[in-house]
């Protein structure tokens, strides 16, 4: 099925590793989009409709959507009789992992401290007050610019995820050995640090003490992507802000993101996004006055790196 959706810029997290905002507005349209960070939308008042991974949900007060990176999702508040109040929390995985929390995603599913985080939850009378307390603590701490502590915010966020995991049924998930997870985490960190270089799977495997076949299987199982898919997604996460927020040439962008040259950038970008980088740049525009996030809406079949194979990115 063809969809209209937008690819949300990472500009919201350019200055800080986490963004927390409380919005009071009614949607003008169904906001179907993806981005490279985790997004929590917590409905304090009013109601909304939405979707995560093609599953439709109705959001009453004290409900929450949690979208993993690269997950197609939407949030539509036009159905609400009253103007909805929604708290949006956006953060990169590194915000938690750099502070010692075990947090990662695979197959568009979030895992926190070996527990699955659901994509949607409605808090009941037993945990409604606790959910509100944590959300209020998060927003209060973030808005306290003079004495804000990222460590305290991370603690509240961890508390929120523990409560969500406890309040929701846990589905069976793959169990990975701690050693395997640590090895793949080391590989991921190396990729994120060296994505702009001429990086191949052979550069990363020695860091893990795994054979090529075991590394390939474990990397796909834990991250939900092949090595090339993951590397390409990291590179595009840096390409898109350069396209929409700078006047850099395609050759300059390619050189800074490990895509080497304009020809390779155009070919790879067009394959995954269904349009050329220049068309992408031309269609990108401000969402509304005063809002720095940019968006693009276009129509194509949803397909995110499913057919990428090793060797396609030269």
Structural summary, described in words:
The protein is an alpha+beta fold and about 325 residues long. It folds into 2 domains: about 1-165, Jelly Rolls (Sandwich); about 180-300, Homeodomain-like (Arc Repressor Mutant, subunit A, Orthogonal Bundle). It has 10 helices and 16 strands. The chain has a 5-stranded antiparallel beta sheet. β5 and β6 (about 55-60) form a beta hairpin. It starts with a strand and ends in a 13-residue tail after the last strand.
Through-space gap between termini: 31 Å
Order of helices and strands: EEEEEEEEEHEEEEHHHHHHHHHEEE
User: Could you describe the largest sheet, including whether it forms a barrel?
Assistant: 5 strands, antiparallel
Rg from C-alpha positions?
Answer: 20 Å
Which parts are unreliable, with pLDDT below 50 for 5 consecutive residues or more?
1-7, 285-314
**How many DSSP E strands?**
16
Mean pLDDT: 77
- Structural shape: globular
Number of helices: 10
Strand content: 15-25%
CATH class of the largest domain: Mainly Beta
Going by helix content, strand content and strand pairing, the class is alpha+beta
Share in helix? 25-40%
Domain tally? 2
Q: Which architecture of the largest domain would the CATH scheme give at its second level?
A: Sandwich
- Named CATH topology of the largest domain: Jelly Rolls
Name the strands of the widest sheet in spatial order.
2-9-4-7-13
């Amino acid at each position: 099925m063809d969809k209209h959706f937008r690819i949300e810029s990472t500009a919201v997290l350019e200055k800080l590793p986490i963004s927390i905002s409380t919005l009071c507005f009614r949607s003008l349209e169904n906001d179907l989009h993806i981005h490279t960070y985790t997004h929590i939308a917590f409905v304090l008042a009013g109601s909304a409709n939405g979707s995560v991974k093609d599953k439709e949900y109705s959001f009453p007060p004290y409900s929450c959507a949690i979208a993993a990176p690269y997950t197609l999702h939407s949030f539509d508040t036009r159905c609400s009789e009253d103007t909805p109040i929604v708290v949006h929390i956006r953060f990169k995985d590194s915000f938690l992992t750099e502070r010692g929390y075990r947090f990662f995603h695979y197959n568009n599913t979030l895992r926190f401290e070996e527990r699955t985080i659901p994509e949607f939850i409605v808090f009941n009378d037993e945990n409604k007050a606790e959910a509100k307390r944590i959300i209020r603590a998060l927003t209060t701490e973030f808005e306290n610019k003079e004495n804000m502590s990222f460590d305290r915010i991370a603690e509240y966020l961890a508390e929120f995820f523990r409560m969500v995991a406890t309040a929701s049924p846990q589905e069976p998930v793959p169990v990975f050995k701690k050693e395997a997870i640590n090895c793949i985490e080391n590989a991921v960190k190396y990729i994120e640090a060296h994505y702009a270089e001429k990086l191949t799977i052979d550069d990363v495997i020695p860091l893990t003490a795994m054979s090529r076949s075991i590394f390939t299987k474990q990397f796909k199982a834990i991250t939900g992507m092949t090595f090339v898919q993951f590397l390409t997604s990291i590179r595009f996460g840096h390409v898109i802000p350069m396209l929409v927020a700078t006047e850099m040439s395609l050759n300059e962008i390619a050189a800074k993101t490990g895509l080497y040259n304009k020809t390779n950038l155009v070919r790879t970008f067009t394959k995954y996004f269904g349009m050329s980088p220049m068309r992408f740049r031309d269609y990108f525009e401000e969402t509304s006055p005063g809002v720095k996030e940019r968006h693009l809406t276009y129509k194509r079949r949803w397909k995110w790196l499913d057919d990428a194979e090793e060797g396609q990115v030269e």
